[in-house]
Amino acid sequence: MNEIPLLPSALLRGPRIRANLESISYTYYANLIQRCIGRRLLRPGKQLHARLILSSTKPDNFLASKLMAFYSKIHQLSYAYHVFDEISHKNTFAFNALLIAYASHSRHRDVLKLFALCLSGTERGEGWDLLDVKPDSYTLSCVLKSMSEVGPVLSGRIHCYVIKNGLDWDVFVGNGLVTCYSRCDDLISAKTLFDEMPNKDRVTWNSMLAGYSQGGCSEECKALFRSMLSSGGVKPDGVTFVSVLHSCADSIDLVFGMEVHQLVLDQQVEMDLSLCNSILAVYAKCGSLDYARKIFDEMTEKDEITYGTMVSSYMVHGYVEEAMKIFREMEKPGMSAWNAVLSGLVQRNQYDHVLDLAREMQASGLKPNCVTLSSILPAISQVSNLNVAKEIHAYAMKINSFENIYVITAMIDAYAKLGFLRGARKVFNRAKDRSVIVWTAIISAYAAHGDARVALTLFYEMLCSNTKPDAVTFTVVLSACAHAGLVDKAWEIFHLELPNYGVEPLPNHYACVVSSLCRAGRLSNAMDFANKIPTGPSAQVWGALLMGASECGDVELAEFVSSRVFELEPENPTNYIVMANLYSKAGRWDEAEKVRDQLKNIGFKKVAGRSRIETFKGLPNFVPLDTTTNSVQMQ
Questions:
Q1: Rounded Cα gap, residues 88 and 457, in angstroms
Q2: Which among 59, 134, 71, 63 has a CA at the least distance from the CA of 100?
Q3: Residue 531 buriedness (CB in 10 A; 0-12 / 13-18 / 19+)
Q4: Do residues 511 and 474 touch, judged by C-beta distance below 8 A?
Q5: What pLDDT was estimated at residue 155?
Q6: What is the pLDDT of residues 134-185, one digit of tens each?
Q7: Number of helices (H) and strands (E), helices first, in the chain?
Q8: How high is the mean pLDDT of the chain?
Q9: Pairing with 107, which of 121, 223, 228, 470 sits 20 to 30 Å away (CA)?
Q10: CA–CA separation, 351 and 274 (whole Å)
């Protein structure tokens, strides 16, 4: 095979290249480099640069920018950096070219570093003179894009620079700032800037709408969309509708979602895959599964998100078989689809199928990630398989997923429910990022095992570490006090610690205090406390009082409380069972039978107990067949 020439012969014979390179035409070379970029001519482009070097010619800013774009195109950023370094008098145009090269390769921290050096004027280590580099709107657009990916490292400083240099009028810079603040979770600053912008284009509106939508501010997103329509100045496009529909789905707002869908049809917006998925998500998440299925069947193009939306929605609404049918239609499910199915099976208590499906996923060539692990770990504790939990623990360590708080908390919870507290504590001790979720998980583990002393010790260690407890943390701690009969400690935490950390008491907080008073035999105090609740006793509080009255054998109080709790929770079988047992204990058999008849009338059936024995075939279920024989059935 003949060797491809390094440069086309016509270029090699060019007079400006041949004439001893004494007179260099920067524009001519720049055009040649641009041609190499467009046609992806790697070797000719490098040869042109080599000829410049051989002639001891340093490119000017225009030619250098072309060379940097060329090296960026062929993924050789070190050469692009070297080209910029060789420029004698660097200007803004060349500086922007270098920033664009780094940003296009996701070297966002380097972009911010270069911009910081530009603001300082020089780079002492390299001897760069950047005094003539004056950041313009293109510079800031590139920097703001990188900052959106990295975080609010220089957001305040850049915003000040924009105002100081009169660039706040530039709509592109304003759009970049809005996007940057939104992605950095500073929606207040984003909205303030948005309101102050004198000129807003479609990108401006879309940036703010996307910030609200992705930040979970669904109502604000919908309100802003209404303002956009009423302003009449800008017409929404597909990107606009995707953000609004996402907010409708998150807020389960089917009515407004249907209105937006109709607007999409009326304006004849191009229905790309992203927009179709957003429309599908509205109907699926809002429970309109028949219409969602119709849209799904009519879609000519489907991706992982499409299938995942349908699978998750069917699972959430209890249609496990339909979800599995959709899943099995996929030729080669990706990780997100597998995770959606596994998570859905756990949510629908289909624990026995989770491990089999996880093994099937591995057999398909996919490796479980953090989402997979946090999804299947709750099933491990339900099937009582400590060995598998340990295997998952080892795998999580192998793939370095112990920096993920969801894996950590799921692992702690699984070990605790399997009775392996030592393992749960080991996971907690290895956790680097001990957020409030991780602290709550380990406190809950000890509380569930009745070790209130250790649970309280961990709680106060958490406070000393300057980690602010949330409502769930206080529920766990108060529950530990209630089960241990630590009335004074529960009283102290409820009246002192909750207000100190700005946590509003919830019904389960009141119920825990009532439970602790009842366990100490102080029924009258518990009743007084319940009657003083500002919003009135909830079903949980009445349930705690009923349980306390039952334990103390106070039938009269239990009858009074049961009348309230039966009214609030007519289909909760636990309350009926507690009352029936109390009547039986008191020898009042007729009343006990009446309560049991009420229980039958609501359609409650006692679930048969299950036992699991680990064998070489796995962990089969053993379920008793009836009460008259000693036979069992293996499932």
A1: 65
A2: 71
A3: exposed
A4: no
A5: 67
A6: 888 888 888 888 877 876 666 667 778 778 777 777 888 888 888 888 888 8
A7: 37, 5
A8: 85
A9: 121
A10: 33
Here the tokens at position 623 are 């379920």
CA 164 – CA 160 distance, rounded (Å): 6
At 440 the pLDDT is: 95
Side chain identity at 98, as an amino acid letter? L
H or E stretch covering 113 = helix 108-120
Identify the CA nearest to 138 among candidates 193, 100, 184.
100
Confidence of residue 15 (pLDDT cuts 50, 70, 90): very low
Share above pLDDT 70 across residues of the chain, in percent, rounded to a whole number: 89
Continuous segment of H or E residues that includes residue 634: strand 632-634
**The token pair that represents 77 in the structure block:** 């950023």
Residue among 571, 574, 635 at smallest CA distance from 602: 571
Given a contact cutoff of 8 angstroms between Cβ atoms, the answer to whether 316 and 345 are in contact is: no
Looking at residue 6, the DSSP 8-state letter turns out to be S
Locate all alpha helices (DSSP H) within 329-470, ordered by sequence.
Answer: 335-347, 351-363, 370-382, 386-398, 405-417, 421-430, 436-448, 452-464
Torsion angle of alpha carbons 380, 384, 387, 391, nearest 10°? Answer: 10
Measured between alpha carbons, how far apart are the two ends of the chain, in Å?
68
Cα 632 to Cα 178, 606, 607, 614, 623: the distances in Å are 66, 17, 15, 16, 6
Cα 352 to Cα 232, 331, 342, 419, 610, distances in angstroms: 56, 24, 11, 20, 13
The two structure tokens encoding residue 363 = 């057999």
Alpha-carbon distance 495 to 499, whole Å? 7
CA dist 316 and 217 (Å) reads 23
For residue 322, the tally of other CB atoms under 10 A from its CB is: 17
CA distances from 145 to 112, 151, 167, 178, 620 (A): 10, 10, 16, 11, 55
Q: What is the strand order of the sheet 621-624 is part of?
A: 611-612, 621-624, 632-634
Sign of CA dihedral 127, 133, 134, 135: negative
CA distance 472 to 76: 51
Q: What gap in Å lies between CA 540 and CA 124, rounded to an integer?
A: 67
**Beta-bridge partner residues of 621:** 612
Cβ neighbours around 348 below 10 Å, total: 17
Angle at 278 between CA 286 and CA 171, to 5 degrees: 130
The string of DSSP codes covering 504-566 is PPPHHHHHHHHHHHHHTT-HHHHHHHHHT-TT---HHHHHHHHHHHHHHT-HHHHHHHHHHHH
At 553, the amino acid letter reads G
Helix (H) or strand (E) run with residue 624 in it: strand 621-624
Structure tokens at 539: 């079903």
Q: Which of 434, 488, 479, 481 has its CA nearest to residue 461? A: 434
Q: Would you state the torsion angle of the CA atoms of residues 293, 295, 298, 302, taken in this order, to the nearest 10 degrees? A: -90
DSSP secondary structure letters along 169-195: T-HHHHHHHHHHHHHTT-HHHHHHHHH
Angle between helices 421-430 and 405-417 (to 10 degrees): 160
Question: What Rg do the C-alpha atoms of the chain give, in angstroms?
Answer: 33
- Residue 227, C-beta contacts closer than 8 angstroms, at least 6 positions apart: none
Which tokens is 149 given? Answer: 């990916």
* Partner residues linked to 632 by β-bridges: 624
